[in-house]
Structures are given as C-alpha cells and as structure tokens.
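Q&A log
Question type: sequence-to-structure
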Amino acid sequence: MNILPSDMKFGTRQPVKRLEDERLITGRGRYTDDRESDGALWLYILRSPHAHARIVSIKTDAARQWPGVVAVYTGADLVADNVGTLPTLPIFKRPDGSDASFPPRRLLGHEIVRFAGEPVAAVVAETRQAAQDAAEAVAVEYDVLPAVTDVQSALAPGAPRVWQEIPDNIAAAASYGDADTVDAAFAKAAHVVALDLANQRLIPNAIEPRANLAEPDGTGRLTLRVPSQTPASTRDILADAVLKRPKESIRILVADIGGGFGHKTSLYPEDGLVAYAATKLNKAVRWRADRIDDFLSGTHGRDLVTHAELAFDAQGRILAFRAKTTGNTGAYLSGTGNIIPLVLGPFVSTGLYDIPLVRMETQSVMTNTAPIGAYRGAGRPEAIFTIERMMDAAARQLKMDPRDLRKINFVKSEQMPFTNFMGQIYDSGNFSKLINRASDASDWAGFEARKAAAQAKGLLYGRGVASSMEWTGGNALIEPAKLHVTGDGRAIVHSATQAMGQGLETSYAQMVAQALSIPIEKVEVVQGDTDLIGGFGSVGSRSLYIGGSAVAASISDLVDKARPLAAEMLEAATQDLEFADGRFRIAGTDRQITLAEIASKQPERRLSVSSEGKVDGPSWPNGTHVAEVEIDPDTGHVRIARYTTVDDVGIPMNPMLVEGQMHGGIVQGAGQTLYEGAVYNEEGQLLTATFMDYQMPRAEDFPFFKTELDESSPSQINPLGAKGCGESGTVGATPTLMNAVIDALAPYGITHLDMPLTPAKIWQAIASHRKAA
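Response status: OK
Response body:
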C-alpha cells in the first residue's frame, strides 16, 4: 500500500510553513480557559493532604453557607447520586493466572484516599475566589494510614496495602517467551551483560494546564469544552461510565491545545465533576487547574525498574535476552496504567535487533502516588532505553565499536517484513544504512580531536549512540474523515484527530490543496467537535499516518463522487473524463468543469463525502542518534555539545514539521536523562510539586540539532508511505545521552548512573571514585 495512486498527489515532501503559527504566536489562539461564558459558576477542588487515610468525616455546613456558594459535593454525595467511576481495561491477569482486580476510580475520594492530591470535595460558587475560600471551610477528619510510594517497598513482605483487595499490591502481570530455553542459551554464552535500570517518574508539563467548561443547553444536552486529545472517547466515558446517559446527549468541543503529550487523553475526575455539577444545577460550570493541580493529580509518566541481561556468542551475536520489569501504576489504574509496562514496552523490547530467544516477565504494582498514564512514547522509551543501554554496556565489555555490535545484530533489510518475538511485524527499514549515515553526519572521525580539545580545558568528553525504534498508531487502525468542497471554491476537512502542536492543520490542508488544486488558504481544517465526527483521536503518533490516510481517502472518494456528476454536466461518458488541477476535462478537448462548479449545482451548494482511512498495522519509525557531551568534573555539570539524528519516518508529508517534532522529542528525552524527576517522601508527599523543585529543560541547554531524514524505506502498510514521528525523538534521546555521559565518565570506572544525571549525582560519583583511588 506504499505507492500513492498514480493520478492523485497528496502534497508529500513539501516544507510548507505552519498555517496555525501566525494565530498562535500572536496571541490569537483560543484555549479552553479563554472561552467566555456569561454567568458560569466556578468549581474548586479540595484535595487530600495525605497519601493514605481513612475519611472519618466531612463537614460541609460552613462551606455551604459561604457567600456566593451554590453547591458542595463529597464522595458520599456522588455515590448516593449513582455517579459512575472511570474505567480501565479489564484484560489482564494476576501472577497466579486469576483475573486482575481493578479498583474503582471515583471522581471524589470516598471512605479512603490513596494519594496526596486526590480530590475529596468540590465547591461550586459564583466566582473562583469564592469557591476556593469556601473550600477552606470544609472540615475533613482523617485517620492517617501507612503509605508506600515505590514498587520495591510495595512488594516487600508486610507492606501497606494500597487496596485491601490486592494483598501484595500487584495489579497485574504478564510473561512472554520460554524461560528454560532462554536459560539454556545463557548457560552456553561466551559473554553475559547485565544491568539494573530505572526509568524515573516524570510529570508532564504542557504549556496549557488542564481546564474545562460544561454548558447545559436547557434541552437535556450538555456541551463539555475540554483540551482532550481524544474527544470521542472522552464523550463516551463521560456518557457511558460517569453520567450514565446517552452519548448523543453530550457534545465535546476542543479548541486549541497547548501541548498534550498523552497527558490530555481521556477523562479526568475534574472533567466529570464539572459535567456532573452543570447537569445537577442546570447552569454552566467551569474549572481551571493551577499548575500544582497538574503536578499533584494529573497522570504522571514512566516510573518502572528493569533487570535486564543479554547473552552473546564469541563473535558478538546476541543469543538471548531476558528481563524482569516492574511498573508503578500509582494508586489508581488509568486507562493505560497496565498497558504501558505489560504490553507496549514488550512490543518494542528487542528494538532493531534480531534476537532469537527472549524471556520477559512484567508486572504492575500499585503505590500511594498519582496514577501513571501515557506520556510521550508510553512504554517505548522505557524499553528502548533498556535495550540500548544494554548494547552500549555490551560493546564496552566486549571491547567492540558500538556501531559494529549493533550492525551485527540488526534485523536486515532483506528480512522485511520481520516478525519479532511479540508477533509485531516490522514492515520496512534499513537500520544499518541509518547508523552509517548518522556516523557520517555526526563527523564520527572528528570525535577524538574534539575530545582532546575538551580535555585540554580540563573537561571530560564523551560520545553516545543509540538506534531506536517506535511502535506507532496502536491497534486502532481505522480513522474517519469528511471532506466538503463548496460552490465558492473552498474545502473543509473534518477530522477526529486532534491538533496539539503537531501541525495537523498544515499537513491536512496541504494534502487537499495539492490534490484538488485549491489555494491552501481556502482549505479549512475542523477538529475537536464530536457532533461533526467521531473517531479515535490523537495518541501514539497516529495522526498523519492514519488520520492523513483518511484525508487521502476522502480526497479520492470526493473525486469519485464528482466524476459521474461531471459526466452528466459535460454530457460525456465517465471513462472519457480526466481529472487534474481540480477539474474534470473530456480527454482531447477543452471542455471542462471544476469541482467548485459541480458543488455549486448541488442542493446545499457543496459536494461532500464521509470516508474511512484504514492501515494494515502499526508503523515502525526508526533512527540513529549520536550525541557528544562535555562534563566539568569539578561541578558535575553536563553540556550537550553536539546532537545528530538520521531518522526514517517513511515518506514525510512536511519535512519541516517532522524536524520540529524531532527537536521537541529530543528535548523531552533529554529532560528525562539530565533534569527531570518526580520525588515522593516516605509519607507520600510530592516534594517536586512546583517548578521551583522540578527542573525542566530550557532552550539554552541545547545546541543546534542536525537532523536528516531517510526516505528509502517507505511504510508498506498505508497509502501515504508515512510512519509516525511525534515520539521518535523522545525514544532515541534518552539512551543516546545516557550513553554519552557514561562514555565521558569511563575514565573513572563509572558504568552506570540512574537518571536524572544531575550535577550533584555526577559530582558525587566522580568524588567517590577519586576517594577510592
């Protein structure tokens, strides 16, 4: 399916500047909290100060009497009103093979709270300030219980139970591969490499915090405005699981989103509370998160530990791989809380390598912390970090060039399509070509001179390489699109995917503009309205790869629909018509008619189609990253000196947009390696709950990136030949930078450090070595 229809061009490889940027950078973007709603009430959330406690009593009388207060709700109120809970996927098993238990996630804590920041009461008032002041008058008596905040402690004998129904705190488990066969391969190996690795907990920080506005219309319909990456599923969960009403009675509207990163998928308790209050009071109700609300109660990312081992023969060929992974779910299971460690990570755990024998044991463990959810990459960065750290450690132990070790073990291009041990099919790729190109682009041969220059200044200097792979699109392989051409020559695209910084407005517009010869400024892309279209939304780098395929299908369908109409108007046979430049022409003549003219003669003065794009499977973008870092041994400070990537995203629709996605992804991956990390104390208090304590990467921390794209391996499973690209930079950057730092620290005998690689951590490692020496 990689070849585009010969008579249709979809604007691929065009570096069109982003159409949305002028609006966004001049302050004309419209975000959820910008929406005016005369007379809307404000909702404020009172949160638990304890990580684990029994609610003895909640006294709300004083708050209800506060000036301007309209209503106060507690968990008991919602239970009495039969308000539902947030769902998760019931598809997993316990270690003993029994069905996993899935504790309910209520909109407000009821009877027991299980993490600091969990909502326990909601106050609705005429102003935000009144609601906040009244919330302070709510008196909650707690019986504080023991808490557990990390997976090792949660698994210890006698550990506090997050849920009484789960005595060992293990929410679910899964294993893959035959242990005995893998153990036998390790027994005969010439070399065995082992590492204990941790992916620390991260806190997603989009520019725009969460917000919502619920507006009943007086007829029984409710509109919820919310920055959601998945509008239709947000509607479905709100209707089916929470409010228990027909889906058709709810409309989700999404305006501009100031960053998503997986953090804004599905429905949050605050969204459900606002919708519930608006329905109950029959008035518009809104809520806006302060930054600390997102730190405390938004979903977090990563947080898993892995013990991994690779077995090699004497020539450096991998014989077997085994790993044990434990992921932290937090106190409640988000929709992806089990999927990330138990499914998504294993899907890509062998990376780009042809590994004949694999054994993986995974489990997810509950703790008294904020729930873990999807965060840019969701399982794939953690898995690729593991295999790429293992390959780098192996190259050092086997005394091999890290590129050569990788090339020996890469899946070869002639093996495509290749099925990995999880049954996932790599449809295309030339991994050795990319590592060779990255070597050239990074000036591999000049590294020693740059290292010598750094050493002359008293600095440590290191280089890291990583070859990464992404699994994009998920298993939701169908997406709808609608296309309208109007009598005045405009085109309108309706898509269920959701823009949040990727440039979808530009990509879809340039597809339609080129294919139908309509000026790009006359193409309007409409997203974020469940009354217009339903679909899966934007997660897992699926938007262009699957959503764009739907737009391509709608273009083709519209031309097919217009052809018999054009034939009738031109009094010609359909087979005699040629389509080009937005018009049909009778072959060999100058008689022609445009799409706009055809549309103008339709009853609604528009020509419309509803289409469906389907792809044959997930796509597998891949690439090689090379980074060089310098370290001041007296302070431990790391500076990224050079960063180069060569990436295969199939056929790029807009190389400029792909480059931007790569840059952002690299920065996010570097944030994990060098700067970011959520920290809870033993009592379950989040110590990194503000930007004063949680360090984010900044532009000044980075050099200019050198990024190149390789188009020689287009995707074989979608009509555009495209592969997802939104998360690839994040997947590749984390192991690349870790490998570079460890290379710089090699003279001190340091073989591994846990992330984030803060100056204090590096300085302490160096100081410990100097003391031991």
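Response note: The longest strand covers residues 318-330.
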